[in-house]
């Protein structure tokens, strides 16, 4: 069963329950390890582009994935953010971009149901792979605005081996308040001004946040028996347990202290390859049982 990343629900919870360290001593956040396999070692990432994306949009996303496993970028870097996954059992998860397929003619239409996602993911098969389905802004996916993205697994052939997949949609014209915050005003909670997106594309920069979340969740809980808290069919995972936190000093409605690009006013916290800048969410650190930010 796919694991749901639900930003909208979290924002509503934050609005109702504004926590204060001055009033309540927060308990350590613990994600239990359920003794299942994690995705470690060399992992191939394949892309299924469903609908129309510009070459620039595709390059922003591919550069992000390539940035996660390189040490050739300036700190704070996307790769330093990703290194927190090494603290989970089994060592490093090294991502490498594999194949890509463009489905610009919408072969399943512009309204996708949940069963369509594993079907699209099966375009590529393999062990230790993550097949990423990215849907364009004019594609509606079942439950889109309540989850922003999801991850799951599919069988490779007829045997017991399973491959993993991720779906993330471009929310620019559908529900940016749920899926592209803090680059768009939130639909719930404090109405703070939106931040300037570091790549100049609210939809794609929002996709980066959701893709980062789901990549970390996938390698640390690929088959619903890795690291998580709560029920297996609706878990809090490595990054979804830290939703809404991007920098130090964050609180509900405020993403935290971030870096700002002087020339554009864009907010970011991680450098990538080819001069890219990204905004990446906090990740649960199993060594400290806290949500770790890189700035």
From TrEMBL:
Pfam families: Phi_1. Residues 1-21 form the signal peptide. Keywords: Apoplast, Secreted, Signal. The keyword Signal applies. It is found in: Secreted, Extracellular space, Apoplast. The keyword Ribonucleoprotein does not apply. GO terms for cellular component: apoplast. Belongs to the EXORDIUM family. This is Protein EXORDIUM-like 2. It comes from Theobroma cacao (Cacao). The lineage of its organism: Eukaryota, Viridiplantae, Streptophyta, Embryophyta, Tracheophyta. The gene is LOC18608261.
